[in-house]
Structure formats: C-alpha cells, structure tokens
C-alpha cells in the first residue's frame, strides 16, 4: 500500500485493529490515544498506543505511537505537523476517538442524566473528531484520493431509532453527519469521506464484561444469545484496509457503511472465516421477530 495513515483513537478495540490491518497492507500508521505505558486515561484500561504501534510494525507496516488528547487543539496541531515533517503527506484519516462507554446511563431522561457525563460524551465523540479533521485535512488534501473514515456505533438506518440516552444518541449519529459534510467538502479535492460502524464488536472491554477471551467468546452466548452474531475487531480492520486500497472508493462518498456490508462488497471475512451481518440480524431477528439462528447471518 505504501500509504500514510492516522488512526486517531487506536489504543484498543476497533481502533487498534484498523491500525494493524493498515499495517498489514504496508502503511505507515500514526497511532494516537491517551493511554500509554506511563499514563492511563479516564477509561482506566491497560491497553496502550505503544502496544498498538508494535503490532502495526509486526504486521508489516510502520507503527508510530504519538500520545495525543484530541480535545487539545495544540496537541492535534503538533501531531499533524509531525506527520507532515516526517512523511510530507497523509492518505488516510480514521477518526475513531470515543472512550465514553463508562459515562453511559441508558434509559435515563435528559433532565435526569448526569449533565457532566452527557456533555463529556459529546466532547469525546464530536469535538475530538472536528478538531482532528480541522488540522489533518489540509495535509490530506495535498494529494487527490485521500480517505476519511468516521467511526461510529450503528448505521444511519439503525440509528434512526432512539438509542436510549439523548447524549449517546447524538454522539453516535454525529459522525454519520460529519462524514456526509466532509464528503461534500472533499469531493472537489478528489477525496472520500464515509462513516463506518462495526457490528456487535468483541472488543477487549466486551470480552472482559462477559468473562471470556477471543478464543472462548462463544461461552458468552449463554448470557446473551445475540452475542452469537459478534465479530472480532479484525473484521472492521479489514473493512478499512479494503476501503483504503480501493481505487474506486469514491463511489462510497458520504455513505453510512458497516463492516458486514463492506465484507459483502469486497469479499473478505472475519478472523474465523465467517462473514457476520450484524445489522441484518438485528433488523430481522432482534427487532423483526424472525425465528432464525445467528448462524444464518454469518
């Protein structure tokens, strides 16, 4: 591939997997986040951006860890200046910053929710992405063909239904609108912007929640039958790598995409060889009442 990528929010989960998949394709990947070997963010987990960068390099790319709080404009500006100084270009920007799950209070009215938590979610999900795009896009548009991927939770169709917390609802629909707006702003520069969501993601945090590992994840299906449709982080990683390598990716400009949809389009599979279609499963089985096993959607 030979591309230069910035994965903003690459500490763990989907962000780490996307960085590694880009590395497997030969990219130089700047992996950013707030948790390093010396400091943990408010999320409180142990995964670090240094580990991510090492995995990128081990996969065949060049991984570069840069501690960055994407709510701090000076830090983001310095990050982009470093990429410009060291590489002189930016081909792929993945806006994956989040880290707000610990703030969630589902099924709580806006007048009852902890306001500080709600506003923090909006800052983490929307302000971070806007700041990063503001500083990174002038570098990305120097060369035609740049790609921006706004990572969220849920497709446009899925997020049409209320998500049970006003702040979370806005946080997860916002990146879809950002991608549409950026698609308009980038098209005159030969660029492409999309929003992308994983399905039921087997992140490190989710595996810990169920008390399983990636090797034993099916043991959690007894606790949540819908976990049978879960996908590994590698699935969305492969989705981004295929998008970045596609010379005709402009056909997706402004679209709301899922890992399952791109797997069908590009022909890749999850790490276990299956091709889970989480959102079709939720549409038909969870919300539509269809009696069908998750295996029918893998």
UniProtKB/TrEMBL annotation:
Q: Which InterPro entries match?
A: NAD(P)-bd_dom_sf, SDR_fam
This protein's superkingdom? Bacteria
Q: Which Pfam families match?
A: adh_short
The portions of this protein that span the membrane are none
Q: Identify this protein by name.
A: SDR family oxidoreductase
Organism, by scientific name, is Streptomyces blastmyceticus
